[in-house]
Design brief:
Order of helices and strands: EEHHHEE
Structural class: alpha+beta
Strand content: 5-15%
Strand order of the largest sheet: 1-2
Organism: Halocalculus aciditolerans
Largest sheet: 2 strands, antiparallel
Shape: globular
Radius of gyration: 13 Å
Helix content: 25-40%
Distance between the termini: 38 Å
Protein name: DprA winged helix domain-containing protein
Length: 93
């Protein structure tokens, strides 16, 4: 199976040729997508770090890369850190 690439508003999901590693932009894009899928148009308002980590289990993303991606997404304004977790930032239309 060929590695896939996807795009998100946080950047390109760059996967190595053998599918074994993901760039920092790719990690951030995946983390942002996990938060969006678990909080947008559902009753859940936020998702905690542990739930994000469980969702990404088996992806090869370690805790350090996850923490860096979360910090980057909060700093860029894509995610908001709340007591108990993270949620997508509200966007103006």
């Amino acid at each position: 199976m060929e590695p896939r690439s996807e795009r998100s508003r946080t950047g390109a999901l760059a996967v190595s040729a053998d599918g074994s590693s993901v760039s920092a932009d790719g990690v951030a894009a995946m983390v942002c997508r996990v938060v969006e899928l678990n909080t947008v148009d559902v009753a859940v308002e936020r998702i905690d770090r542990e739930a994000i980590e469980r969702t990404l289990a088996g992806s090869g993303i370690d805790g350090e890369a996850l923490d860096a991606a979360l910090a980057r997404l909060v700093a860029s304004g894509d995610l908001v850190e709340t007591p108990g977790g993270f949620r997508p930032a509200e966007r103006e239309s």
